[in-house]
Each structure stands twice: as structure tokens, then as C-alpha cells.
């Protein structure tokens, strides 16, 4: 062959081909619409929970862990400490809308407490300005502060 390998993939001197790197993490074999039974995120009011919505497991949810489906179990177990839907989706490697639908189901069953942020506060420009200023006040690895606008 032109690249110096034989038809079996080995080098001409008989060395095996280099190993193929493994994937970063296991991919879910279950399609998102199967996990949610075809439902999409949305509450009775027609609005979805924002990604910054904080969720935390209830005592009822922790007691029911052994009776929950795989994904519901993982969500409740991961929510022993409050975290956002975005953090939860990233940690569990689930689609954000799957986490939204399952979180709504778990809330309805009393197994999660959901804290939706006040929309007026999350759209307040002064909050974003303070966040940006706070991030700029963190020195880099060499102790140098970032320039401000």
C-alpha cells in the first residue's frame, strides 16, 4: 500500500496499527423522544423552564430513588445539592429539553423542588454588569487583572 501498511493494517515491518482513541464518554443509546415519551418541554402555561432554573431533590424524591427510571434516578440523585437545569444536563450528558421534561414530571410527583428565577431580575442589565465586573476582578493565573471597558 502507498502509506507503508499491508492490507491487514500492519506496518511493512509487522508492527500493529496505532490504537484508535476511545470516545470521550458513552453516548446514550436511547433517543430523547423515547425518554420523554414524545413530550416536549413546556408547562401548563406554555412556557419552558429557563436554563438557570434551580432544582433540588426533596426527601420524598430521595426516598423514591430505587423506584425511578434510570434518567429520573440520575436527576434526583444529582440534585442532592441545588443546581441549574443547564448544569444538570451537562453533568448527566442528557439533552436540555429531556432534563426539562423530566424535571417537570419529578416536580409534579413531589420529588424535586424547582426554583424559577424572577424574570425581571434575570433581564436586568445591572445584574449582568455586576457579573461582568466581578469576573474581571478575578486575576488570571499570573495574578494580573483583566482590563475593564
Give an overview in words.
- This protein is mainly alpha-helical and 149 residues long.
- It has 7 helices and 3 strands.
- A 3-stranded antiparallel sheet has the order 2-1-3.
- The longest helix is centred in the C-terminal third of the chain and has 13 residues, at 96-108.
- The relative contact order is 0.13.
- Mean pLDDT is 74; it is low at 20-25.
Topology:
Blueprint: H1 32-35, E1 54-57, H2 59-63, H3 70-78, E2 83-84, H4 85-92, H5 96-108, E3 112-115, H6 119-122, H7 125-136
Antiparallel strand pairs: 1-2, 1-3
Helix pairs in contact: 3-5, 4-5
Give the tags.
about 150 residues; mainly alpha; 3-stranded antiparallel β-sheet; extended
> Which strands sit side by side, in order, in the main sheet?
2-1-3
Q: How would you classify the helix and strand content by structural class?
A: mainly alpha
Which strand-content bin applies to the residues? 5-15%
The SSE order reads HEHHEHHEHH
Quote the distance from N terminus to C terminus.
59 Å
Shape: extended
Mean pLDDT: 74
Largest sheet: 3 strands, antiparallel
Radius of gyration: 23 Å
Secondary structure: number of strands? 3
Number of helices: 7
Summarize the structure.
The protein has seven helices and three strands, in the order H-E-H-H-E-H-H-E-H-H.
Amino acid at each position: 500500500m502507498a502509506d507503508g501498511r499491508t492490507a491487514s493494517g500492519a506496518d511493512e515491518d509487522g508492527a500493529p496499527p496505532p490504537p484508535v482513541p476511545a470516545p470521550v464518554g458513552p453516548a446514550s443509546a436511547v433517543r430523547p423522544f423515547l425518554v420523554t415519551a414524545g413530550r416536549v418541554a413546556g408547562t401548563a402555561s406554555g412556557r419552558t423552564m429557563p436554563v438557570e432554573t434551580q432544582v433540588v431533590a426533596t426527601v420524598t424524591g430521595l426516598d423514591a430513588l430505587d423506584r425511578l427510571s434510570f434518567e429520573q434516578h440520575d436527576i434526583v440523585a444529582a440534585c442532592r445539592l441545588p443546581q441549574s437545569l443547564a448544569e444538570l444536563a451537562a453533568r448527566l450528558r442528557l439533552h436540555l429539553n429531556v432534563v426539562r421534561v423530566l424535571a417537570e414530571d419529578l416536580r409534579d410527583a413531589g420529588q424535586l423542588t424547582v426554583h424559577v428565577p424572577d424574570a425581571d431580575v434575570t433581564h436586568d442589565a445591572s445584574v449582568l454588569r455586576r457579573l461582568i465586573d466581578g469576573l474581571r476582578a478575578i486575576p488570571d493565573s499570573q495574578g494580573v487583572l483583566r482590563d475593564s471597558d
